[in-house]
Amino acid sequence: MTTRRNILKAGMVGSAAATLPLGLLTPAQAQALTSLQVFVPAAPGGGWDGTGRAIESVMRSEKIIENFQFEHAPGAGGVVGMPKFISTKKGQANAIMIGGMVMVGAIIANKAPLKLTDVVPLCRLTGEFLAVVVPAESPFKTMGDLVAALKADPGKVSWAGGSAGGSDHILAGMIAKAVGVDPRKVAYVAYAGGGPATAALLGNQVSCGVSGYGEFAEQVKAGKLRVIALSSDKRQDGINAPTLKEAGVDVELFNWRGVFGAPGTTKAQQDALIALFDKLVISEGWKSELTKRDWTGIYMRGDAFAKYIETETARITGILKDLGLAA
Predict the structure, then answer these.
(1) pTM for the whole thing?
(2) Label partner for 225 (CA 20 to 30 A): which of 17, 106, 161, 303?
(3) Would you tell me how many other CB atoms lie within 10 Å of the CB of residue 166?
(4) Residues 120 and 8 in one domain
């Protein structure tokens, strides 16, 4: 299980690498990038799109990069879009793909003939606790109410979230296992992004939803959704909800998101891209963005991030076996 403490500890390791001097790049390499192609293998409005838009906003305001082009290719937690990124962006030094923990799980769950090492791990940027929410008029007033219904009949409690095998699905399975319900019986409804999942909740088409709190925040503040539990290690300022552990469910989980380069880029081109994010994460604009979106900065770059991907793949494989999504 990933805990906030472990994530932050890993982030400290990554931050040490992040202090490498930008002077390692030649002036030509550092100045070669004047635009970024941002490839989002998910629908607009979700967490990956939000990460890309936050990068764009801060890089523009900090004068790091001012020209951006976005492309979306949703489906199956990135498994649909990733091959397109690989085939159409190969060797393009200014192309980046947004991805994260969801993609690791989706590749495993879909038995996809690809892996994250087919692209270039550039950096891990953020970690985010997840929220369990229900429609405002839901009969489930607490996490205890939801757990009781889940124990009585798992099939009658439908969960909206991102793609099968992603962090949302993983959390639903972990909750089920923790309260004595077979994770394979969880009635999980996968959506292509945070926007469609939220729409399903607002339309009372599902019992509850799981995603990063930032994706639900607007509707929670508007009184249309209620948070009944968080997957964080402690209560969060400004959110009137207990942690899962407080609610009697012994589960804690953080999602992470990062950036990947196109295959076929040279080491110098990869270094130039990483240098952009070195500048991004130390900016006041990015720090403000983290606070605004309830994200935790867990920067890790280059080779350290590539090794983390290997470890994360092994960990998530184990979790997905419990869900019956991995052999």
Answers:
(1) 0.72
(2) 106
(3) 29
(4) yes
